[in-house]
Amino acid sequence: MTERRRHLSVRGGEWAFAVVGLPLALLGGVYAFAVLYAGTLLSLTVLGLPFVVAGLLGARGLGTLHRRLVGRLLGEYVEVPGKPPLPAGLIARGRVVLTDPVGWRALFYLVLRLPLGVLGFAAAVALPLGCGWLIGFPLWIRLLQPGPRPDGRLDAASTALGLLLLCAVPVAIRSLSAANRHLARLLLGPARAQRRVRELETARATLLADNTDLFRRLERDLHDGTQARLVALAITLSLAEDALSPTAGPDLPRLRALVDRARTQTDDTVAELRRLTRGIHPVALDGGLDEALTGLAATSPVPVGVHLDLRERPHPVAARAVYFCAAELLTNIAKHSGARSAELTARAADGRVRLTLRDDGRGDAALGTGTGTGTGLTGLAERLAAVDGILRVDSPPGGPTVVTAELPTRLC
Length: 412
Known about the structure:
The chain contains twelve helices and five strands. By secondary structure, the protein is α+β, with helices and mostly antiparallel strands. Strand 1, helix 11 and strand 2 (342-349) form a beta-alpha-beta unit. Helix 2 (12-41) runs antiparallel to helix 3 (48-73) and helix 2 (12-41) packs across helix 5. It starts with a helix and ends with a strand.
């Protein structure tokens, strides 16, 4: 019942978009066809290219209006495309505008938006009015032709058809709203190349920030931890040297205690250095990615089955990314999933390495969520994007959860 009610309901913004969007759709459609028609006619003259340049700039502006209207009424956020560079000189600027894919995509959007706008207005206004006329047909016909009517089947059929079409109005408006959202996402956002550049810039900024934090933490740990241990070791050795003073003779019990202390401090310092360097380059990767992943699975508190098919040897940077990704995901499974078992699969072939982790936990993990469900998946996806990788999460409520990380085996 709830699902049926949802399909028969229409948001106010969708209805308003169907009504208010018609004038803007007509304006944009007429503008686009005028630009294309006049640009074609003027293409053999001196005015052809300047006219097309001005038309593309205008299409960008109309696309901005449509993008704001879609965001405000349909609730669909469309990323704002970047502005084209403006070199010096009119000819250079005109060349940039003519080769800008955003302007051409906006012009194409205006062409396709015209029929959708007409259909949306018809579904939101004309169709309900027609349904009202069909439902009230028996009343209208009696007002126009008073007196008894021998056959009432036409009246009943008219009313039934009107009610049936009235039930189809919300479905039509919702379907057209979905089509408008998809069209806006497809044509009013940044071009694929621009989006890819932004993703790489964001990933690079994230990677630089992570590396900066890592080095600052390493510097702090070296200063506050390792350096303090070495200073303590130097003091211990200085005391041991005093215990060997030839004037009073060696104090063997004190010397033995100082040597034991120095040995303990040396072991602690070595362990501290190993802990610090483990985050820079995991020692487990020295034996290969297969051994490293097998070792991670063996140390997991949740039983993990391992299936490896690494016929290609990934680049060291890619192998390190896969290793840290597996370590993060296994930690998430142990802390947040409530799983009883998991399965790790890694395959490297055809220039791609794919890591898949599946668990039988409670599910409901997603990118961008907070602690307990997302468990840092968004940060992991950003780190993978820095090496041209992607992260996919399939985790319905109740499980199972399947997380797949894929990246190229070669980064150059």
